[in-house]
């Protein structure tokens, strides 16, 4: 199968591209960043997904599927840029797939779509609405991109569209917001709160994306790994000092004195759990995680020892 992977030069993008190439698929990676040592079976095109050179890949290369991972977070882009990349980029991918006969679209989203709120259900199912956009505006563009991709299910029924809402990913690549949080010299928590966190190894997450492609899934699916654990357990397993801080003072520490750089909206996610129910994906694919939480945390500790923290 010939598969376009957007965001292929990113941390998770590389893992997914390698997974697909190792399974015998031909991968066409599209990213504004180069990947100079891409493995055999992965061909890179340096382009902005919203621009004509990227569209030309869809128009001329005859892909069977596209995996859209070209979204960004507050870690790398400011609000205006995030909106253009996440929402406009997703719009472009969906339109290109429809226009040029790509039969399958996978949008790789995040389980934080559901938001953290004190009155939220413990386990979110795929039909649950996003609850936390008003308290965490840095997620608004990702939620909008998720909803736009989901709308393709009825707009373009001839395309097998699948939205994956993946739990927090952790591993030696250090990719993603949770890795940024846990790799800091000091890890802040909210005094009096210890919410459940849902984490899966980055290799399992990449394998889950490849599994969704192979099963030609259509619809919305939560992708999860081991059972959720309290945040305090993750901080301890990362070998970091857990620094409980009263909520009114917490945002003043973000990005200072060895604490991680976090947006104001992240406070709610340090107070209330965001836990997704992954039964639908497991039932549709038979997927099971391979790396348990202790091994995931051990790999993370080795990659990011405390004495190397900024």
Please characterize this protein's 3D structure.
The chain has helices spanning 11-22, 52-61, 79-99, 140-155, 177-182, 202-214, 231-237, 247-250, 266-269, 279-285, 293-303; strands spanning 2-6, 26-31, 42-46, 65-68, 104-110, 160-166, 168-170, 187-190, 196-197, 199-201, 219-223, 229-230, 242-245. It is of the alpha/beta class and 310 residues long. The strands form four sheets. It has a seven-stranded parallel sheet, with helices on both faces. A two-stranded parallel ribbon has the order 7-10. A two-stranded parallel ribbon has the order 8-13. α3 (79-99) links the parallel β4 (65-68) and β5 (104-110). It is globular, with a radius of gyration of 19 Å. The mean pLDDT is 93.
Key terms:
single chain; 310 residues; alpha/beta; Rossmann fold; 7-stranded parallel sheet; two-stranded parallel sheet; 36% helix
Secondary-structure topology with pairs:
Elements: E1 2-6, H1 11-22, E2 26-31, E3 42-46, H2 52-61, E4 65-68, H3 79-99, E5 104-110, H4 140-155, E6 160-166, E7 168-170, H5 177-182, E8 187-190, E9 196-197, E10 199-201, H6 202-214, E11 219-223, E12 229-230, H7 231-237, E13 242-245, H8 247-250, H9 266-269, H10 279-285, H11 293-303
Parallel strand pairs: 1-2, 1-4, 2-3, 4-5, 5-6, 6-11, 7-10, 8-13
Antiparallel strand pairs: 9-12
Helix pairs in contact: 1-6, 3-4
CATH architectural category: 3-Layer(aba) Sandwich
Q: Please write the CATH class name.
A: Alpha Beta
**What is the typical, i.e. mean, pLDDT?**
93
CATH homologous superfamily annotation: NAD(P)-binding Rossmann-like Domain
């Amino acid at each position: 199968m010939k598969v376009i992977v957007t965001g292929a030069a990113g941390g998770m993008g590389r893992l997914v591209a390698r997974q697909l190439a190792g399974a015998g698929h031909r991968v066409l990676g599209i990213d504004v960043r180069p990947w100079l040592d891409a493995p055999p079976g992965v061909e890179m095109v340096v382009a902005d997904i919203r621009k004509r050179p990227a569209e030309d890949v869809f128009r001329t290369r005859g892909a069977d599927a596209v995996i859209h991972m070209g979204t960004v977070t507050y870690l790398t882009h400011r609000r205006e840029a995030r909106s253009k990349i996440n929402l406009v980029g997703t719009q472009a991918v969906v339109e290109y797939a429809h226009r040029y006969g790509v039969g399958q679209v996978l949008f790789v989203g995040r389980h934080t779509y559901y938001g953290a709120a004190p009155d939220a259900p413990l386990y979110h199912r795929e039909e649950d609405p996003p609850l936390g956009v008003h308290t965490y505006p840095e997620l608004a563009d990702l939620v909008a991109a998720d909803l736009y991709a989901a709308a393709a299910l009825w707009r373009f029924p001839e395309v097998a569209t699948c939205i994956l809402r993946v739990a927090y990913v952790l591993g030696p690549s250090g990719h993603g917001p949770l890795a940024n949080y846990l790799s800091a010299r000091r890890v802040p928590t909210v005094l009096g709160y210890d919410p459940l966190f849902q984490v899966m190894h980055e290799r399992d997450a990449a394998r889950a994306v490849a599994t969704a492609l192979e099963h030609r899934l259509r619809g919305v699916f939560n992708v999860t790994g081991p059972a959720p654990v309290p945040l305090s357990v993750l901080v301890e397993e990362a070998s970091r000092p857990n620094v409980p801080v009263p909520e009114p003072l917490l945002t003043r520490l973000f990005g200072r004195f060895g604490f991680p750089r976090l947006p104001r909206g992240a406070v709610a996610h340090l107070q209330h759990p965001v836990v997704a129910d992954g039964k639908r994906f497991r039932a549709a694919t038979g997927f099971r995680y391979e790396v348990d939480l202790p091994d995931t945390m051990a790999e993370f500790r080795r990659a990011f020892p405390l004495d190397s923290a900024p």
